[in-house]
Amino acid sequence: MIKAIVDREGSDIRLISLNGHSGYASSGNDIICAAASALIYTAANALEDICGYDNEEFFRLSGEDTNEVNASIVLPDKGNEEAKSRAQVIMRTLELGLITLASSYNEEDNRFIEIINSKTPEV
User: Fold this and answer.
1) pLDDT (tens digit, 9 = 90+) per residue, 86-102?
2) Domain count for the chain
């Protein structure tokens, strides 16, 4: 199962990470893993292109030699208010894409992707 963690600080999404293999199909044929990967890569590219963030600062990819999705976006706390606002739209869009993916493919007996929401307490 892919575990998608969405971490918020207040109402802002600060981190989205994906870890695991959905188990929907074998590696190379798994449409859920492919969709989750496409969503997070698209979000990373949008953050770079639209917000001007350097993806080497916020995008982490590991386990490329495994059959699992292991990627995360940790938003940097930089940029003007417009860039930060746009970044939140992109992150929320990524979250909605993952929610849609889960609701489309998860079944009562087979769960392929789990979305875990956590919230950093405001200080």
Assistant:
1) 999 999 999 999 999 99
2) 1
